[in-house]
Each structure stands twice: as C-alpha cells, then as structure tokens.
Amino acid sequence: MAGKVTLVGAGPGDPGLLTVKGRQALERAEVVIYDRLVSPAVLEMIPAAARRIDVGKEAGRHPVPQAQINEILLEEAQAGHRVVRLKGGDPFVFGRGGEELETLARAGLDFEEVPGVTSAVAAAAYGGIPVTHRDYASSLHIVTGHAREGSIPDIDFEALVRTRGTLVFLMGVTALSAIVRGLLSAGMDPDTPAAMVERGTLPGQRRCSAALRALPERAAAMGICSPALIVVGGVCSLADELCWFERLPLHGKRALVTRPKARAGTLSDRLRDLGAEVAEFPCIRTEAVSPCTAMEAALGQLAEYEWLGFTSAAGVEAFWQCLRGLGRDARALGDVKLAVIGPATGEALEARGLTADLIPDVYDAARMGEALAKAAVGKVLLLRAEEGSPALTDALAAAGVAYDDIPVYRTIYDNPRSAQLREELEAGRFDFVTFTSASTVRGFVSAVGRDADFSKFVGLCIGAQTAGEAEKHHISVKISEKATIDALVELAADEEKRK
Ligand code: SAH
C-alpha cells in the first residue's frame, strides 16, 4: 500500500513555533525529508527511529535539485512510508510546497499540508515589528528578492510603493541595494523606516534598523547575512519600543549545559526561555552498580533502618530499580523515614508516590548530614554515588549516628566531542558553563583537558562543593544562592542585569 506525505511548515526557527499538528505529524513520521532552513531544535524532535534525508544546501554545496526532491518524495511514499516533508516557515510562502504537492497529486498519492508560522511575520514580530498597525499600514506585501546571480530582481517597485503598505522581502540579502534603489527611484520617501531581521526567532537573532536610504550601509556594517528579512514601512519605527525578544535577560548569550543527558532538559529549557542559546554537553552519565548485592541485602532488612537517605535522582532510580527487581514495591518501606538532599531528589521520590520527611535548608551534603544527625535516633541507610561526598558521613559519624553508606551508582566520564569543545571554549564561544554537581566539573575538565584555557567563560555552579571543584581548575565561578535549577537560572539572569 502506498504511504502518505505530510508537508509540514517547521516555522522560522524557535522550536516553540512549530504547530501542534506539525509536531504530531513529526512524531509519527517514518521518513523525514528536510531543508536547510529547518532549525536544529526542530530536527531534534524527529523520532530516533525515523530515517532523515537532508535535501538542503550547505555552505559550498549545491542543494538537491527540485526535480530530484520530487523524485525522492514519490519513491518514499510509493514504498509505503509515512513521510514528512519538513520546510522552514510556511511551505507555501516561497517554499515550493505547491510544486511538490502537484507532483504527488499527479501520481495519485495521498498528501496533507500543515501550514507553518512564516518568517515573514514571525521574524518581524520577534524584531519588535508588527507587520500591520492601524497607524502605519493597512496592507502587507510579501515579496521575493531572489534574483539570478548579478541580475536585478524582477519587481514592480512602482506598484509596491503605491500600496503604502508594509513590504517584506524574503531572500533579499544579496539584492538589498537593488531593492532599496528600486524603491527610491519609484518615489518612496528615503526616510521611510526600514529594518532587517537576521536569524529571526533564533537565539542569535540580530536586528538592523535604519531609514530606507541608509539600510544597505548599516546592514553591511553589521555584516547581516542570510537568512534575513527586509521590512520596509512605518511599522519599523516601533521596533525599538517593541523589541521584546532582544530584551530577554540572556539574549545573545551562549550557555553550555554539562548535565547528564536525561537531566539536561529543564535547565536547558529555562535558559532558552530567557533568550540564551544553549548547547548540551553531557560529559557524565550515571550507571547503576549492578548487581548491587549490598543494596539488595540492605533492602532485605529495611526495618533495621530508621532513615533512608538520597543525594540525587540517580540514587532514587537505582534504589527503585533494585526494589522492583526484588519483586517488591513502595510498601517495602513501611515506616522508614526518607531524607533527600534537595527538591530535585525529592521530586524523584514523589514520582514514585513517596514524600520526603527531611530536606535540609541548604541543599548540600554537609547540611544534609547535620540535619540527619539531629533527626536520627536509629540507623541511617545512604544509597548514593560511589564517589559521594564525605561531608555527609563525617557529620553522621561526628554525632555518633550509625549508618551504612552503599554505593548504588557510579559516574562515567566520557564524551567524544571534547576536542571540538575545547576549541570552542578557548575561542570564547560560551559565556557560561553550568555545573550542577562536582562530578559534572570533573567530567567537563577531563573531557576538555586539564591544560585547557578556562578563562573565557563563567562557571555557574550549584552549591559550594561544585564551585570548590571548579575553582581548583581556575574557573571563575558564580554560586547560586540555593542549590536548585531555578536559582542557577536566576543567577545567570542576574549576572547579565548587573553588566
Ligand atoms: N517558507 C519560508 C521562506 C522560505 S524563503 C517562510 O515561510 O518563512 C527563505 C527566506 O526566508 C530567507 O532568505 C529569509 O529571507 C527568510 N527567512 C527564513 N527564516 C528566517 C529567519 N529565521 N529569520 C529571518 N528570515 C528568515
């Protein structure tokens, strides 16, 4: 049976601007055929099992010709696959979506189209430019500035000027001077407000605002490159007042998140919400100690313990896996009380229907040890990392509290991208590197190399122990007030405000 092609608009770049229907189509896709303008963040949503076909042009390489793209679409659909054809912005706005669907229609194949948010409107919006406004423009004209190399785009400038509407030119970077000349010679006021928005809706977005006659010079001075929009009209005068995106506290900043992959999500998302460009570098991962006979034995006699203590979500996971492996569940805990180092560990327990009885006021190993030492009368069972901080057990020992400290997972340091990362760090590509535990610092340093230059970024650290580890490597650190992801994100934003 023949498959089906869903033509999906990926939006202008910000992954949040992919439509719900577009995302659903992606999630069900078996084959995804995509263009150059689809942002990496949207490509990340392609299911791992789906086959990816890149038909976009890369620097120095030619794009796959349209006829061949049409062929690929036909072949994949005829082979019975669920195909998503993913295009930047809206597929029907200078995206050749119509041509591709004609091919499918003529071959009698099933297809669907999911419109996307076009950059013509969205990149302008993120640049603080509403494409229409009752005081300035009552029409919007989207025009292609694309011209064969060297030649002038075939545009009826007189007609455009007569509309007195907002003019948006796509694919116009190369033809910018020709476009401006065309408008001016058709009688447009040289002082008409104009703007360009480069990489609109993406973290690295830049805007260039100027009067029409000065736009080419200003754009050249800023080095504006494709993809960028040219917007011409009175609405551009609002940009300085309405450019909300550029005012996000971390706009233009680049952060590196070093958490293990499974836990990087929230931190990265929060930083992105504040405008930062985020790269993830999971330089550590955790692995359960298996088989863990010590934990199995302890869980077999849980009633002997008054307290069960966890210092990370990974510890909770290892515990839970072991418990389930023994054929038991939460009921095995009976009256045992639960202590956690901080809210994220607490949430890992909550996810299994368990609520922590103790959480220290400062979320670190020493304070957890002190709090437990005060609360405990009976024995404490600690299930944590092989290389767990001695500050916790020292506090218990000092108070004469009996404990068993069982290593239930270990940290593995490995990451193949380290040489490239080192280059980027030393070139000053990152403003911040986040460290959520001392082990992420160790993983990062061992991946990049101890002798690397760590002076080009600020290490944002959760807690004093993490910061202490970073300082050993001469990383200049900022420590979040509380040991939580929220506090770490606030720290990044405050840093920028102070500048
Ligand atoms: N179908 C797309 C447009 C494809 S033509 C859409 O609806 O957005 C390609 C042109 O779109 C680029 O040359 C540029 O002018 C514009 N463009 C696409 N993404 C952009 C972005 N993120 N910021 C600014 N312009 C963008």
Fold and architecture overview:
With 499 residues, this protein is of the alpha/beta class. The longest helix has 14 residues, at 485-498. It has helices spanning 20-27, 40-43, 66-78, 97-106, 119-126, 157-163, 176-185, 215-222, 239-242, 261-273, 293-300, 313-325, 343-350, 365-375, 390-398, 418-426, 438-448, 463-471, 485-498; strands spanning 4-9, 31-34, 51-54, 82-87, 110-114, 140-144, 166-170, 193-198, 206-211, 228-232, 254-257, 277-280, 284-288, 305-310, 337-340, 379-385, 403-413, 432-435, 458-461, 476-479. Strand 18 (432-435), helix 17 and strand 19 (458-461) form a beta-alpha-beta unit. The chain has 19 helices and 20 strands. Helix 3 packs across helix 4 and helix 17 packs parallel to helix 18 (463-471). The N and C termini lie far apart (61 Å). S-adenosyl-L-homocysteine is lined by residues 12-13, 37, 87-90, 93-95, 118-120, 123, 170-171, 197, 199-202, 226-229.
Question: What secondary-structure arrangement, pairings included, does this model have?
Answer:
Layout: E1 4-9, H1 20-27, E2 31-34, H2 40-43, E3 51-54, H3 66-78, E4 82-87, H4 97-106, E5 110-114, H5 119-126, E6 140-144, H6 157-163, E7 166-170, H7 176-185, E8 193-198, E9 206-211, H8 215-222, E10 228-232, H9 239-242, E11 254-257, H10 261-273, E12 277-280, E13 284-288, H11 293-300, E14 305-310, H12 313-325, E15 337-340, H13 343-350, H14 365-375, E16 379-385, H15 390-398, E17 403-413, H16 418-426, E18 432-435, H17 438-448, E19 458-461, H18 463-471, E20 476-479, H19 485-498
Parallel strand pairs: 1-4, 1-5, 2-3, 2-4, 6-7, 11-12, 11-18, 14-15, 14-16, 16-17, 18-19, 19-20
Antiparallel strand pairs: 7-10, 8-9, 8-10, 13-17
Helix pairs in contact: 3-4, 6-7, 10-19, 12-13, 14-15, 17-18
Bound molecules: S-adenosyl-L-homocysteine.
